Amino acid sequence: MLSMLLSLAVNATTVKTDVVVDTVRCNYECIDKIVSEQTKSGKVKYFAVYNDTKNDISELIPVPESVLMYIKTCKDNKIKPSLAIKLRNGVISGLIRYKMRYGIK
Asked: How far apart are CA 30 and CA 42, in angstroms?
């Protein structure tokens, strides 16, 4: 009985699922607006209404508060923000800042 439980425990710990996290550049012009929703616990969550007709994407994308502040600061200073959509196993999981890497030759 004990050996059976140990073998089940070993088998349960060796099973792993591979999580694939990827990013896709976001077209800022496709963000129609930012909406907020209050949870039952009173916390406010923000979502971007993203409509990209060219790529046939219409989604509500979760936006962290730090990214929301970045978007507002860029808008106030008339700068186009660098954003990306974070995907987890092919499913949209959030909007993030996309840091461009510039090379000087």
From this structure: 29
| Spatial CA neighbour of 69 closest among 81, 60, 78 | 81
Check if the beta carbon of residue 34 is closer than 8 Å to that of residue 65.
Answer: no
| Alpha helices, H only, the chain | 2-14, 65-76
34 touches 63 (CB < 8 A): yes
Say how far apart CA 94 and CA 86 lie, in whole Å: 5
Kindly report, residue by residue over 11-20, the tens digit of the pLDDT. 444 445 565 6
Contacts of 93 (CB under 8 A, 6+ apart): 62, 86, 87
Q: What is the pTM of this model?
A: 0.71
Sorted by where each begins, the domain ranges of the chain are 18-97
Residues 6+ apart with CB under 8 A from 105: none
> N- to C-terminal Cα distance for the chain?
68
